[in-house]
Design goal:
12 strands; globular; alpha/beta
């Protein structure tokens, strides 16, 4: 594979593995919601150049172990600033704890979390982060569909959407919104599998539903993670000459 230009600026060669943490500027940040809460998070950006696009990540269900360090989101922050020149914003929604800390408030079944999504979008705007995409995983896909239709975003990428909280009216609203919606659906998902997902998302005319053979809801294994990161990069930075995200890097 041909490394991206970002990767070639790092020093010594080595394999990108499950635990690889590539260089980035990582800043502990706080987000402030309209209803008075402080949420904890992290912003990772390329070391020596501005990002070309931004991922605003929304984590899985906190009542079932989801948080800003859920492994796919953590690996996106570990790798993509160096490999693809992306900024990656991760944060804990209200009441969610992780090694970074605990966000104020309490889980609100996706309702009060509207303020959390808005706070993340406001933070990205205040930092003038470019070309913002929402990346939701499981419960995070529900937050994107219900609360993410903001003119400031380029589109959204959904990983393993269960469509348990988001209603048909949310899909209709996203269709009218008109922004791209990329839906990655594992073949062996516990909640919504590719055939059913294509039927449900048919409401959104601009939705691209991609079935991923062999994967499960949690995207376990390096093959599944690389597929997710490749799809994210290829949609956020569309380039017909772009190779998949490198599996080897410089540095």
């Amino acid at each position: 594979m041909i490394p991206t230009p970002a990767a070639t600026r790092l020093p010594a060669p080595g394999a990108v593995s499950a635990l690889t943490v590539l260089p980035a500027r990582r800043e502990q940040v706080e987000l402030h919601t309209a209803d008075g809460l402080t949420l904890v998070g992290e912003l990772a950006v390329p070391v020596d150049r501005p990002p070309v696009a931004t991922l605003i990540t929304l984590h899985p269900l906190p009542t079932h172990g989801g948080y800003m360090d859920s492994h796919v989101l953590r690996k996106a922050a570990w790798r993509l600033p160096a490999l693809a020149d992306l900024a990656v914003l991760r944060f804990n929604t209200r009441g969610t704890a992780s090694p970074r800390g605990t966000s104020e408030g309490a889980f609100d079944d996706g309702d009060g979390e509207r303020h959390d999504v808005a706070a993340a979008l406001a933070f990205a705007a205040a930092r003038d982060l470019p070309r913002r995409w929402l990346v939701g995983w499981s419960f995070g896909t529900e937050l994107a569909l219900m609360h993410g239709r903001d003119p400031s975003i380029e589109g959204a990428i959904l990983l393993s959407p269960p469509l348990r909280w988001a209603a048909e009216s949310d899909l209709e609203a996203w269709d009218a919104f008109g922004k791209p919606l990329v839906v990655l659906v594992p073949e062996l998902d516990d909640f919504l599998r590719p055939a059913r997902a294509r039927a449900r998302f048919a409401t959104v005319r601009q939705a691209e539903v991609i079935g991923v053979d062999g994967a499960g809801h949690l995207w376990v294994g390096e093959t599944a993670v690389r597929r997710v990161l490749d799809e994210i990069v290829s949609h956020v930075l569309p380039d017909p000459d772009q190779e998949p995200t490198p599996t080897r890097r410089s540095g």
